[in-house]
Design goal:
Order of helices and strands: HHHHHHHHHEHEHEEHEHHEHEHHEEHH
Number of strands: 9
Bound molecules: guanosine-5'-triphosphate, manganese (II) ion
Helix content: 40-55%
Number of helices: 19
Strand content: 5-15%
Strand order of the largest sheet: 2-4-7-6-5
Radius of gyration: 22 Å
Length: 379
């Protein structure tokens, strides 16, 4: 038997959330190639295609060794025809023609550069690209009217595209903690997103805030934002409403429960760009300058999420990511467990159907219980 063939007989579960996916893995050449195609599909608003490439990449990340030949992949789940073709090409030629063409295409480069502007999505970027705008400088020269987010995004373009490091995330965490405790002592702040998964850099820093006394978190976001604003930390802030996974795949909540649930249970995502006006204060933010010039602070994207204590476990699970992991977890809950998972709750669909009781789902909402159950037993 040729060495390496054992990969083919390893049984790999088909949902990404059932597998161990280490941060450092053995197949980066392949996953880098697939990620570019995923990104390109997402920029072209072809979500399904993007997910297919991301699933294939996630499968490769979970393998215990480097793939050297396509025959090792026989029988493995999540590898669609297109992904397999790309993988084979990279294994045989070192590069994939499609990936090369993509990375060098004007459209891909322009879409990446333009969506790299805070406040610019794929639709807007595509419209501008069609008008001949390919770079942030083109946009600046074009005289287009921009909204506040985009103006901030353009002004701080370079800084906001500089990866945020772990020490910066920790420093920002201290500011957020100060802000939160100033307006609500006893509140708990948790680092979520990529940093919680052990990543050393991120495109932003994400925090989840809650308070052990249910209800105390009401109005908290507004107060925290005012505090940060008053201290000169905020460059731009925006509160967003419904969230992407919830709105698209979200639970059909019991209608009778809707009003009460909606009133204060939304973990409100809040995007902040943290900077300061007072050099002294902000040098404390980062400790050192990340940008040229006399300024001793830099702009960083920060997402804050507030959740009621009873939903903390779900918010923590839902906002830790990765996006694909969350998607897979929800798909698995629906198809394999007949349950619906969101960042608010886990619904047992069989019970919700048979009982008209409105509080059924809170059965699952006991603090961190669910979170640990999922982490330890189900995945
Ligand atoms: P980097 O920031 O690049 O390090 O990656 P990240 O994994 O932290 O991504 P991001 O900050 O975009 O989001 C963090 C996690 O929060 C994601 O993995 C998603 O699962 C989740 N998330 C982001 N936006 C939303 C949203 O609008 N609704 C919900 N429910 N979850 C979201
Ligand atoms: Mn993040
Ligand atoms: Mn984020």
């Amino acid at each position: 038997q040729k060495p390496g063939l054992e990969l083919a007989v390893v049984s790999v579960p088909s949902y990404a959330c059932q597998r161990h996916t280490p941060l450092l893995h053995h197949n980066t050449t392949l996953t880098d190639a697939l990620s570019i195609l995923a990104e390109n599909a997402e920029l072209g608003e072809n979500e399904g295609r993007g997910v297919a490439f991301r699933r294939a990449a996630a499968l490769l990340k979970s393998l215990p060794q480097e793939v050297r030949g396509a025959e090792q992949l026989r029988g493995l789940p999540c590898l669609g025809e297109h992904s397999l073709r790309v993988i084979k090409e990279v294994l045989e030629d070192g590069v994939s023609h499609e990936v090369e063409t993509t990375t060098h295409s004007e459209q891909f480069k322009a879409m990446k550069a333009l969506t790299g502007i805070f406040g610019v999505g794929a639709k807007t970027a595509d419209r501008w690209f069609r008008e001949g705008i390919h770079t942030p400088s083109d946009l600046q020269r074009s005289g287009h009217t921009l909204n506040r987010a985009q103006r901030a995004g353009l002004q701080y373009y370079d800084e906001l595209n500089l990866p945020v490091t772990k020490p910066e995330a920790v420093a920002i965490g201290q500011i957020v903690e100060r802000a939160v405790h100033a307006v609500l002592p006893g509140a708990e702040i948790t680092l979520i997103g990529g940093f919680r998964r052990g990543k050393q850099t991120g495109h932003d820093v994400d925090f989840l805030i809650t308070h052990p006394d249910e209800g105390r978190e009401e109005g908290l976001m507004r107060k925290v934002v005012s505090w940060l604003e008053a201290q000169g930390f905020l460059l731009y802030q925006k509160t967003t409403g419904n969230s992407y996974l919830e709105s698209k795949e979200g639970p059909a909540r019991p209608a009778s429960n809707m009003d009460r649930f909606e009133r204060y249970s939304h973990p409100l995502p809040q995007t902040l760009v943290v900077v300061g006006d007072h050099a002294q204060k902000v040098s404390w933010v980062l400790g050192h300058s990340q940008c040229s010039g006399p300024r001793s602070w830099r702009a960083v994207r920060v997402d804050l999420v507030v959740s009621p204590y009873s939903q903390f476990a779900f918010a923590l699970l839902g906002w830790t990511g990765s996006k694909l992991f969350e998607r897979e977890l929800r798909r698995w809950a629906v198809h394999e467990k007949a349950m619906t998972l969101s960042s608010h709750a886990l619904y047992d669909r069989k019970r919700v159907r048979t009982l008209s009781q409105t509080h059924t789902h809170f059965k699952y909402c006991s603090g961190s219980f669910l979170y640990y159950q999922i982490r330890d037993k189900l995945i």
